[in-house]
């Protein structure tokens, strides 16, 4: 009885074990040990840069020395440049304009039959494909051999890079950073020239360092819009590449901040209100001086308790003047502050020769009352001035405080256009509140434009006296407004519950005009491209800026962008265009090899809400990658490859000794025979038998 | 027939007057050009708005004597129903133990006045912290600018350097060691002193100051006079003294003052 119980348990255990064997398919491998010859893949760069000096010839000669390795290793030779292909001595002269190392690592990753790689190259990876990720995944060690010349073997001066801020501002200096790579010209002093279009804007003498020379050139753009700057170094005899001696860069000159100098002779509401307009505009930088105390005023407390500063006459009218775009005089007489005629001459030249702006605002110390008759300032003004003597003899004032209604002569001038709608604009002006004072000025000069007059005050020739007059004076602009009570527009329009912002609009427009900023649809849409020529596979970032009429970024805008190909086809760039910030868009384009080389054009149309505001176009060239742009080798890249893959780096072809390569025979295990238990029918039969035995035993013992 | 003629006469007269006013022939309003006018708000049903009827004279004399400000040598009394209010971008409101309560249209006018460039200086002459005037002022401006409450004007505010450097925020009394203001779009459109700043200026018929300044006497009065001047200069020059060109020079002066105090 006890024996049969033990037998039942035994049969169960054994049958369960058999069941597990059938379930998990256990196999048994019988191995055999074999040894094989290691395989080495040798890659030789045959891109165009290898044609410099004797690079390629020396690399090929070195290959012959590798014959020694045939005894112990299996060798496979490849050429690589823009493609990778088996080495053929008669077909491998360096011609390709691109070196693409990624092909080596891609190849090794796919073909896992190599034990070592050796690369002969100058290290110049000129393809836009990124090799670094593939290097990290490389399954075998790579030895790298730098193929380059000594310093005496070739000569070259090349501009490696030119960089400048993406956007620069008119009249504000910015730096152009230039990197020059030179070989064979150490310590030579060379001129680095920057041209804007065909005009030389600056030249800087630079002493060339051993390898890289960094040069920084400062430049102040004077006009708005896009400029192409050409940076160049001379071409010297014996240089391997003449193409790299010139590099072009695009800059986009924005209006930036309009720098305004505002001199006011007395504290007053006109100054406070205009100042508020100027300070609230982020595009305007205001520097102002208000005469808070005259010599006849007494000091109530010691000087250190007063927040007054000396009037910096020399700085304003001499040393700093030309850093501004616009000078405003309000109710200011030069006579009280020792301002000599030479300073007034400076103001004249500031406008007439340097192309800046000048506005004289009225007041009891402006125009004739300010003593400007017969001075260079009078020459700047668009109106004649009467002599002071005339007022004294007739016992009349040249500054009258009395209300009057401005009579507009030109509603359509950009200064006077307070509303785009002609009728609304006229209505705005016709219902404008009265002003409260005026200066008596003479007739408008020839060439001047009178925008508004006093309705009653008649001058010689039965003409109404100008209140707002402007003109282009020499290279600059000058204007007058013969009153200092325009602040009333803001206050009295508010009293009438009307749009008091017209005061702000008027002054902004006056200042923009005087500072030389033009309002035109052409400037409302702007395209910025960093370069004028791009290589295949290079990412092109197109930046589009939309401005409103006050040159502020345009809200609620929309752009349509198209690409005109050299073959005349038009591509919609909708999917490449995205909004960066209000009024600013980026268009990202990358050209694959499928695109034809040649001249392309980007066309951008801007819209404000649904209204078309303008179009801008920009052309650029698509070219092949310039293999010879920097002919010097790149040892750091080769060194990086060997370091990351566990190989060795040889810094010259002579230092590479094939005998140093020592890879022992590769010992590998190979499966000779595989026994799979599941395949044996004995297992199934045994399992069935055991189950039957167990069933029989249980029946006999009565343990069902 | 008579009614018809009368109507035509009225219409004709109205049009003539309108035209005359438009071309400047008729002016019912005083004209001060760009001069500073001491304008004071008349409010309420009695004369309690006019706490210091002659203070304007002292202030204008002082401004003429010590600054280059051109002033209109009179006081303009304005109401919030009158559009004349808008001819004077700086108005003073003085209260004692009265209340400043305005109608809906007056509140609208005051709001437009402040947003268009006007500035209001409020002087509480009650010598008390929580006066009925103070309560009504805070209530009024919380309804005009619900999102912009009164805040303490810091020492860096341009009001403390627009003419005199760092005057103390005092008045006839020292109820608060600060003054308050409401800022809208980078402008302080309401300036509020509970220290009775204007009380320091009031003189008797002999030309002596009428009220003592407590607690620091005449030193305190000098500071109050300086602060009043600064507030008016702020109305006429805005944030001028915060410009970078002044910064280093004024810092030097402040350092000199600190050294002298040490």
Describe the structure.
The complex is a heterodimer of chains A (704) and B (262). Chain A is of the alpha/beta class and 704 residues long. Chain A is built from 14 helices and 35 strands. Chain B is 37% helix and 15% strand. Chain B is built from 6 helices and 7 strands. Chain B has helices spanning 2-22, 55-66, 104-115, 132-144, 217-237, 244-261, and strands at residues 36-41, 71-78, 90-95, 119-124, 151-152, 180-184, 187-193. In chain B, strands 2-1-3-4-7-6-5 form a 7-stranded mixed sheet, with helices on both faces. The N and C termini of chain B lie far apart (89 Å). Chains A and B meet through helix 5, strand 16 and helix 11 of A and helix 2, helix 3, helix 5 and helix 6 of B.
Give a brief description.
The complex is a heterodimer of chains A (704) and B (262). Chain A is of the alpha/beta class.
**Number of helical segments with 4 or more residues of chain A:** 14
Give the overall shape of chain B, derived from the CA principal axes: globular
Radius of gyration of chain A: 42 Å
| Largest pleated sheet of chain B | 7 strands, mixed
Low-confidence stretches of chain B: 18-28
* Spans of at least 5 consecutive residues with low confidence of chain A: 518-522
What proportion of the residues of chain A is helical, as a percent range?
10-25%
Structural class of chain A: alpha/beta
| Protein chains sharing the most extensive interface | A-B, 60 and 59 residues
Structural class of chain B: alpha/beta
Mean pLDDT of chain B: 88
Instruction: Report strand % of chain B.
Output: 15-25%
- Strand portion of chain A: 25-35%
């Amino acid at each position: 009885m006890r024996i049969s119980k033990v037998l039942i348990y035994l049969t169960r255990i054994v049958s369960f074990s058999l069941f597990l064997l059938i379930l998990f398919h256990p196999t048994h491998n019988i191995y055999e040990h074999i040894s094989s010859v290691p395989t080495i893949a040798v890659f030789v760069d045959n891109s165009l840069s290898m044609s410099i000096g004797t690079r390629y010839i020396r690399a090929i000669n070195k290959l012959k020395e590798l014959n020694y390795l045939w005894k112990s290793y299996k060798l496979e030779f490849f050429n690589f440049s823009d493609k990778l292909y088996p080495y053929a001595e008669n077909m491998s002269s360096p011609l390709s304009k691109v070196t693409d190392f990624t092909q080596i690592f891609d190849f090794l990753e796919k073909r896992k039959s190599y034990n070592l790689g050796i690369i002969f190259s100058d290290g110049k990876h000129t393809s836009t494909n990124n090799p670094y990720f593939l290097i990290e995944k490389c399954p075998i060690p790579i030895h790298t051999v730098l193929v380059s010349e000594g310093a005496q073997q070739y000569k070259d001066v090349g501009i490696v890079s030119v960089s400048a801020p993406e956007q620069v501002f008119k009249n504000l200096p910015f730096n152009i950073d230039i990197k020059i790579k030179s070989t064979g010209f150490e310590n030579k002093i060379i001129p680095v020239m920057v041209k804007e279009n065909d005009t030389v804007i600056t030249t800087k003498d630079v002493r060339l360092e051993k390898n890289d020379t960094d040069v920084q050139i400062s430049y102040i753009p004077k006009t708005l819009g896009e400029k192409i700057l050409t940076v160049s170094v001379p071409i010297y005899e014996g240089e391997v590449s003449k193409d790299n001696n010139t590099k072009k860069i695009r800059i986009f000159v924005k209006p930036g901040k309009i720098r305004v100098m505002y001199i006011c002779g007395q504290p007053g509401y006109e100054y406070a209100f205009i100042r508020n307009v100027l300070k609230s505009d982020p595009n305007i930088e205001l520097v102002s001086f208000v005469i808070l105390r005259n010599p006849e005023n007494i000091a109530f407390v010691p000087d250190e308790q007063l927040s007054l500063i000396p009037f910096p006459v020399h700085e304003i009218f001499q040393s700093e003047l030309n850093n501004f775009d616009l000078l405003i005089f309000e109710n200011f007489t030069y006579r009280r502050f020792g301002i000599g005629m030479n300073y007034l001459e400076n103001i004249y030249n500031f406008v007439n020769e340097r192309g800046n702006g000048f506005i004289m605002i009225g007041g009891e110390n402006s125009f004739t009352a300010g003593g400007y008759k017969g001075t260079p300032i009078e020459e700047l003004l668009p109106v004649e001035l009467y002599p002071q003597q005339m007022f004294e003899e007739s016992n009349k004032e040249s500054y009258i405080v009395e209300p009057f209604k401005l009579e507009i002569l030109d509603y359509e001038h950009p200064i006077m256009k307070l509303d785009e709608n002609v009728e609304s604009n006229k209505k705005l002006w016709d219902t404008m509140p009265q002003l409260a004072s005026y200066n008596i000025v003479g007739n408008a000069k020839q060439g001047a434009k009178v925008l508004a007059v006093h309705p009653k005050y008649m001058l010689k020739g039965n003409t109404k006296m100008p209140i707002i007059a402007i003109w282009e004076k020499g290279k600059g602009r000058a204007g007058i407004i013969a009153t200092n009570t325009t602040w009333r527009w803001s206050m009295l329009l508010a009293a009438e519950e009307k749009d008091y912002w017209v005061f702000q609009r008027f002054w902004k427009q006056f200042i923009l005009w005087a500072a030389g900023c033009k309002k035109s649809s052409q400037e409302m849409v702007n395209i910025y491209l960093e370069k004028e020529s791009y290589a295949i596979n290079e990412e092109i970032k197109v930046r589009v800026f939309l401005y409103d009429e006050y040159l502020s970024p345009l809200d609620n805008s929309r752009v349509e962008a198209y690409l005109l190909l050299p073959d005349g086809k038009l591509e919609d760039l909708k999917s490449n265009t995205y909004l960066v910030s209000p009024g600013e868009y980026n268009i990202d384009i990358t050209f694959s090899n499928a695109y034809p080389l040649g001249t392309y054009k980007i066309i951008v149309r801007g819209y404000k809400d649904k209204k078309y505001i303008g179009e801008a176009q920009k052309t650029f060239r698509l070219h092949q990658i310039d293999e010879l742009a920097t002919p010097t080798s790149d040892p750091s890249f080769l060194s990086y490859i060997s370091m990351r893959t566990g190989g060795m780096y040889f810094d010259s072809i002579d230092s590479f000794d094939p005998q140093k390569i020592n890879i022992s025979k590769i010992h590998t295990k190979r499966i000779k025979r595989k026994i799979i238990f599941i395949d044996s029918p004995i297992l199934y039969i045994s399992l069935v038998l055991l189950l039957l035995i167990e069933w029989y035993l249980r029946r006999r013992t009565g343990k069902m | 027939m008579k009614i018809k003629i009368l109507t035509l006469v009225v219409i004709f007269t109205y049009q003539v007057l309108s035209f005359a006013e438009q071309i400047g022939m008729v002016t019912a309003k005083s004209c001060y050009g760009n001069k500073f006018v001491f304008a004071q708000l008349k409010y309420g049903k009695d004369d309690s708005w006019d706490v210091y009827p002659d203070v304007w004279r002292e202030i204008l004399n002082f401004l003429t004597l010590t600054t280059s400000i051109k002033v209109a040598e009179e006081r303009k009394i304005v109401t919030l129903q009158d559009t004349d209010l808008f001819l004077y971008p700086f108005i003073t409101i003085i209260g004692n133990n009265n209340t400043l309560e305005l109608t809906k249209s007056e509140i609208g006018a005051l709001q437009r006045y402040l947003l268009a460039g006007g500035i209001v200086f409020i002087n509480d002459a009650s010598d008390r912290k929580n006066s009925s005037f103070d309560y009504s002022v805070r209530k009024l401006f919380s309804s005009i600018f619900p999102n912009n409450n009164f805040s303490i004007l810091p020492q860096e505010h341009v009001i403390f350097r627009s003419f005199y450097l760092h005057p103390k925020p005092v008045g006839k009394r020292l109820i608060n060691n600060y003054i308050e203001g409401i800022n809208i779009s980078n402008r302080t459109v309401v300036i509020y002193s509970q220290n009775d700043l204007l009380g320091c200026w009031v003189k008797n018929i002999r030309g002596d100051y009428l009220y003592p300044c407590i607690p620091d006497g005449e030193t305190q009065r000098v500071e109050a006079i300086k602060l009043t001047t600064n507030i008016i200069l702020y109305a006429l020059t805005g944030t001028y003294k915060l410009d970078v060109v002044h910064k280093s020079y004024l810092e030097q002066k402040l350092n000199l003052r600190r050294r002298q105090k040490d």
